[in-house]
Amino acid sequence: MKKPKSPILTVDGIILENNKILLEKRAVKPFFGYWVLPGGHIDYNEKVEEAIKREIKEELGISAKIKKLIGVYSDPKRHPWYHTVAVVFLCQKTRGKTHTSQEVSDFKYYPLNNLPQRIGFDHRKIINDFKKKHIK
Q1: CB 3.0 to 4.6 Å from 99: which of 61, 110, 111, 134, for a disulfide?
Q2: Exposed/middle/buried for 34, CB within 10 Å: 0-12, 13-18, 19+?
Q3: Which of 40, 72, 80 is CA-nearest to residue 56?
Q4: DSSP code of 43?
Q5: What is the band of 135 on the pLDDT scale with cuts at 50, 70, 90?
Q6: Domain limits for position 56
Q7: pLDDT > 80? residue 37
Q8: Exposed / middle / buried, residue 66 (Cβ in 10 Å: 0-12, 13-18, 19+)
Q9: What does the alpha-carbon distance between residue 119 and residue 36 come to, in Å, rounded to a whole number?
Q10: Can you tell me the distance from the alpha carbon of 109 to that of 16, in angstroms, rounded to the nearest whole number?
Q11: Does the pLDDT at position 68 exceed 70?
Q12: The domain spanning residue 103 has which CATH number?
């Protein structure tokens, strides 16, 4: 893949249930086999708010609503192949049964203080920032 000349816009979603965070295990590169937040690239002519709902539905089969904006993550090294900028939302599952997909080989709710070792991208930083600012 040719490296883009501008950052690629992406979205990530934090979904909590019973004080546990939903992570998915990647079935694709980069970070194959690592745990990550649900999310992905924004399509052309798509709002970030719609993109996170679409990505959660595509990857995990569940519908979600946005509760609030958590932040923007733009470190040029957050993705190993090219520069991405992520808009991160706190989301709430609204309906559906969580399942795997072509991009996701497994999913699990983890306690915020007992995350898996292998977390991809900068998602550990995102989760830790979220804990510091939003969890009492």
Answers
A1: 61
A2: middle
A3: 40
A4: P
A5: confident
A6: 10-134
A7: yes
A8: middle
A9: 6
A10: 8
A11: yes
A12: 3.90.79.10
